[in-house]
Hints:
- The structure is a homodimer.
- Chain A has helices at residues 17-20, 27-33, 48-57, 106-113, 116-126, 138-144, 159-166, 189-202, 204-213, 232-245, and strands at residues 36-40, 64-69, 73-76, 83-86, 88-89, 98-101, 131-134, 151-152, 169-170, 175-178, 181-184.
- The radius of gyration of chain A is 19 Å and the shape is globular.
- The longest helix of chain A is centred in the last third of the chain and has 14 residues, at 189-202.
- In chain A, 38% of the residues lie in helices and 17% in strands.
- By secondary structure, the first copy, chain A, is of the alpha/beta class.
- In chain A, the strands form 3 sheets. Chain A has a 7-stranded mixed sheet, sandwiched between helices.
- In chain A, 58% of the residues are buried.
Amino acid sequence: MNDAKTTRRTVLAGAAAAAAFGLGTGTAQAESTGLKIGILLYDGFSLLDPTGPAEVLSRLPGATVTMIAEHRGPVRTDTRDVAVMAERSVAEVSRLDVLLVPGAGNRGTVAAMENQVLLDWIRRVHRHTTWTTSVCTGSLILGAAGLLRDRATTYWASADYLEKTFGVRYVAERYVQVGKVVTAAGVSAGIDLAFHLASLLAGERIARGIQLAVEYDPRPPFDSGDAAKASPELKALALKLLAESQE
Amino acid sequence: MNDAKTTRRTVLAGAAAAAAFGLGTGTAQAESTGLKIGILLYDGFSLLDPTGPAEVLSRLPGATVTMIAEHRGPVRTDTRDVAVMAERSVAEVSRLDVLLVPGAGNRGTVAAMENQVLLDWIRRVHRHTTWTTSVCTGSLILGAAGLLRDRATTYWASADYLEKTFGVRYVAERYVQVGKVVTAAGVSAGIDLAFHLASLLAGERIARGIQLAVEYDPRPPFDSGDAAKASPELKALALKLLAESQE
């Protein structure tokens, strides 16, 4: 049954088909520009916030995605289960085409909002970015850096905090673009944001190609992801699960 | 405008609401059982395959998610952009309630399929799991370990390889359950799989709570994620982008 050992080892069909179609991806130009995408990690970040967008954006022709933190080394998630390596410290990075700030639980978000090294770095990098972006409570960190204007989105349970603290209007969309600042809603919304960014950076054709490349045809088995339709009980349960997973 | 410094630092509203509703999450029982979820990392894995499910499953009451690899330490993705820490070596882990094997590009998948240390470990752990699961080409690794029967899913471009090599029928669903083996389609399908697993492990109520906790209400800006509806040109472009991002 298992003749894997003797089968010619190309497990992905049609890898040569692109040549047959004479497809270009614009790589040459992208590589010459060398699209630099940086994602800021900090203690207690939520795992999917940076990794969802990184999966998508690392497929852009010529792009590099770099995980950055105050210091190089492993950075642990809110649940403490997983650590992702920061490959560069903020001191080593001064220019990015795209900056993405992920969200975190309460503790991680607050610590980042009070970390002047991170806030100064975000402001400095923001001056030259093409897009400055956030996922989940990452928008609160952009707010603490003074970068929010007019409208933004964030994690559903942080909407009131966003409006009261930064004087911007919360918009319940997957992502909200104001000037060059694009904020995304909670956690998984970073994936939708990433496809929007992919189309802005490389055009809709490439964005669609990446969508198929990562088979992003979501079909959740349940329909409970929208806070606007959730009961008070489900909201309370969600926040309880979130809090307990972070203890 | 920014009074963040003086605002009382609870950025998530309603965190105390759970107590008001008298909600239980079944934590006491789950903690006594200590649900152990292990994700196998190997060189060249695709970033979202393990991290999407880890985000969801780490919110299960009492659960721990552990990244495991042949050796402890950072394990790098297919694009080489990102490294996730393996916290345990396979030699350190003999029992898991849930095993998840992520997918990779061609090179990483083939190397894992030929790594007898990994295959032996997967077979050994599988004997006692409640669920043995895969994302993307991870199902080919389960196949190489001799664990596939009857039907399975995998990355769309590996469907022919799956059928010819392991004699199982490819099913174009987000996830396919056969006995205690649950395989998921490409990359992002691991998130849908994870909510299915969450409901199997902790019930639909908890799964729905986690869905709201990570605001999983996907709204892709494009509709190109389904290979069954994709043109030959788009398929070729997707595979070209995938291949070039791994160079």
